[in-house]
Each structure stands twice: as structure tokens, then as C-alpha cells.
Amino acid sequence: MGDHIGRKACVLGVTWVLLLTSCGAPSKLGPANQDGAPARLTSSSGGPTPLTATTPLELTDFATVNHGVGLLRTCDDNSNVDFAVLGRRLPASGMALLYAAKGEPQPVRGRVLDALRRAELAWTAAVGNSTLFSAGAISGGGSYSSAARDGVSAVGWMQDSGGNAPLAVTTLFVTETSILEADIQLNACYAWNVNDPIGPGACAVGADGAFDVQSVITHEIGHVLGLVDLVKDSDANDERGSTMYFQIGAGELVPQTLSAGDIAGGRLLAPAP
Q: Which of 187, 142, 145 is nearest to 169 (CA)?
């Protein structure tokens, strides 16, 4: 386990990105990842983002296609053992992630909270801590701030139709050792669907052209736990079977279930029950 952490350790201020030509039109792998190297998240001064509890750290996930083919993964191979860590972890009390329905796309209306609960269950069951995450809804659809700490960790929707528009953004508020608050935003400019859940080893795809809410949220919750994206490397492990793999295609359901590496990383980072 230690070898995997040492080889793939990540520091605060690093994110992995894929680039898009426009919202809803996933394009080729962007230059920040063509050589497997991460892009550095910088502050307005151009330097590394400061390590403070009030400065948000954004982990940004972009949609992709695989050489013109919309699906990257159709069968669930959970054998990969690699994982990568941020170096911060949740407090012993865990975290409540509240769903803000404001801006929810019509095709998934009324179904996202259940998908969030299933995504949380994947992680809590894997790490053996049933109190690690809890899901609820912000009253009346509610609002929250992803730009500043407001005491609410939320999953909600944004609208970004510009060039290089992200599929999802997870914003973490951290100290040197802890993750204090987190907000997950899904981009409503993309097509979304809530598909039936799959089991480990399943071969299945979701609605054509639509991103699976549960798959994406499961990946984003991995960031909240303190894991970062895996980029394909040259060893024998196939990182594509991991929930924390840095690419996801429309219709992919594989990220709903965790790989051996996802589970090992989660167990390392999760507070004891």
C-alpha cells in the first residue's frame, strides 16, 4: 500500500484536467494531460494556491471522449490497486453532504438525492464507517457558497457553457491536515441521467449521450474523502477500472463501484468509525 501512495502522492494545488471545445461537446485530451503531467492550480498572483482554511481548493473534472468513441469503459474491472492522496482527510465526525436542487435539470428531477445516497453508501460500506457521510436536502432547494466557507457542504448545480467548461467541480476548504468543508457542483449544461445502479463486474452502459449522476458523484466524493485523480501510467495495473480514474465518458457506469485501489485509499484516509 505504501508503494502506491509514494508513487502517486499528490500535493495541494494540483488538479488533473481534460479540455472541452464547448459545453456539451467533449473533445480530445487537453495538453495539460497529454504527457500524464498534472496542471498546477494557481492563485491570481500566479503562485501556488495558499494553504489556508479559507482559500478554496478546486478539483476540476472534465468530460471526455476516447478518440471519438463516447464510452471509455463498458465492463467493470475493479482489480486496479493504485490510488493517489491529497494529504488531507475528513475530521472524525465525518461530513454531511446536503443536496441543493436549485437548477436541477429536468431529466433527473427528483432522482438526484437517491443517487447521492447510493454514491455515499459505496464509500461508507467500503471503508467500514457508516457515519462517514450523510445525505439530506437543503430546505426548499436552498443555496450555498462554493467560493467561501458557509458551514454547508453541498452537492448542487452550476451552469457553465463556455469553452473548457467542466463537467463537475469539487471545492475543498482545508487546513494543513484536514478537509473542513466541501462543495460539489455538477454542470447542468451537459446531458445527465440517473441510471439503475450496477454491481461489481457488471457490463452495462447508461442512456446514450448523458452522464450518469451516480458515477460522477461517486468520483467527486472520492475527492471529498481526500483522494485525487489517477492518470494512466506504464505499470501493469489498469487504472481505467477505478472510480478515481481521470476520464469519464457519457453513459459510463463503471465509476459507480470502487476498485481495490479506491477502497485501499478510502480506508487509509477515512476516520475510524
A: 187
